[in-house]
Every structure is written in C-alpha cells, then in structure tokens.
Hints:
By secondary structure, the chain is mostly beta strands.
Amino acid sequence: MNYRTIPILFLLLVNLATAQWSTDPATNTPVTVATENQSDPVIASDGFGGSFVAWSDRRGQTLDIYIQHFDNLGTPRWATNGIPSCAAAGDQDHPQITADGVGGVIVCWRDGRGTDPTNIDIFAQHFDYGGNALWPSDGVPVCNEPSRQSNPAIVSDNAGGAIIVWEDSRNGVNNTDIYAQRVSASGTMMWQVNGNPITRATSFQQFPSLISDGLGGAFVAWKDTRNGNGDVFAAHVNATGTNTWLTNGVSVATDSNSQENQMLLTDGAGGLYVVWEDLRNGADDNLFMQRFNAAGTAQWLANGVQI
C-alpha cells in the first residue's frame, strides 16, 4: 500500500471542512497526556455528534486498554486521560470499538492476562454514556479458547450489543481461521462458546474486516491463503450466527499474485461491495472491486473490476 496517499487525502479533507475545535496545534484537544506510551488509537461516533476514542496504554507496568468520550464541542466527558477498560495482568492491546446506539460504547481487545504467552484471548467491555462499566471488571471473555486469538474487529448488532470477529489458531498455528461471536447488551454470549466458525479452510485466514448488515448480522471478509496466493474471501453471518453464504466463504478475488487489505460497504439492497489492493498486474498495487447480492453471488466480472 502506498501510505503517502494518506496525508494527501487528509489535507484534502481539511481544506473541504471547517474545524470545529481548536485550529492551533499547540492547543488541540488532548486525548491523553498520561506518562509512558499510548498507541493503537481507534475512534467511533457516539451517534450524537461526539466520539469515543480507545487506545493501548503503558502508563502502568503492562499494556492496558483505556477509553475516552468526547462531546461535539471536543470536551472530554470522562476522567482526564481516559478510564481503564481493562487493567488486568499481562498485555492488552489492539482495541476496536463500536457505539451501542444509546450513547454508550462497546470495546474489544486482544488479551494476554494468562500465564501462557501463546494463549491470547479476546475480551470486551460495555460503557454507558457516563463512563460506567456495564460488564464485569476488566471485561468479559469473548473467546478464551486455549490458543492464540488476534486481530479482532467489531460492529453493532443494532440491538445494543455487538458482533466481534477475530483470527483464531485453535486448529493449529499453521491453520489460522476466522471466528465470530455476538454479545448482547448485558454481556451474554449469544452464539456457541468461543464463537462460531466463519471459515475453517486450510492454511491461513487472516485480518478480518467487518461491517453490519443492518439486520443484526454482519458481512465479513479476510485475506486467505488456501490457494497458495493471498486471496480475498467473504461471508455473511445472520443474527442467529448462521453463515448464509457458502461454507468457508465465497471467493472475492483469487487471481494470480496477492490480494489484500480489503474494505467493505453495504449496497443498500442486502448485498455487499468489497474493494481491495491487488498485485495481479505486477509490482504496483492496483485497486479492484466486486459487488455481491444478498445471496452471496458476485454481480460483476470474476475477480472484480479494476478501479
């Protein structure tokens, strides 16, 4: 990916918008100025003109997850430098967040609180508008299968809870798969213990992307090496946890060379757009795109159209 395009796009957005908070870099609103390092920031709208920001924080002896809520004026609503979502033993990192639809937020993360460094889990916590934790201290286990789980992603389930997906090595370190779980607003796991499999194809399935279908389910896409190259596959899971497309996902792009870094957008008619980086034309990255209908059938040319 050509990361030089990111600041160019940022400057274009700044020129097209009027800053609502301070325009002086010396007085911009700090999210946190706590001691030590803060990293992995993620942001989500609160649905009321404000935002939630979560990050990994090393102000203690290990990495923890902290979170802050800003209103539409840029005023932090919770404690200075944020409140801990998880301060358990071991490292917690890679937070992901989604609004709950009623002024609160659900955050999930990768969690290494156990004594076995190869056993990394996925945990989550729910906060209300006032910053009160609604689930047990340090979060609830979304998946604590005795293996490594990583790269979580989260979206609202449109019922006060969330759907969370992750990369999972329970079937072998050389055979990572994608699993998913739905968590209710009260912190109850709605699907099977430690998640429903989205794909258990051979080789590596990695880096899942996720978007709500607006009906309590979600679309998922990921990088997939079952065919030797890095391809992109996708699936749809409904509100009950059933995969409604092909077992192990439908092929988005399986052309030669590598496809990766997929992004998702619903089409407004029950289907899905997928866009990704593609090396089929040589060393330079190109962008390709595909559309699927609600049944998971590709609507455009095989392996997508070039953008």
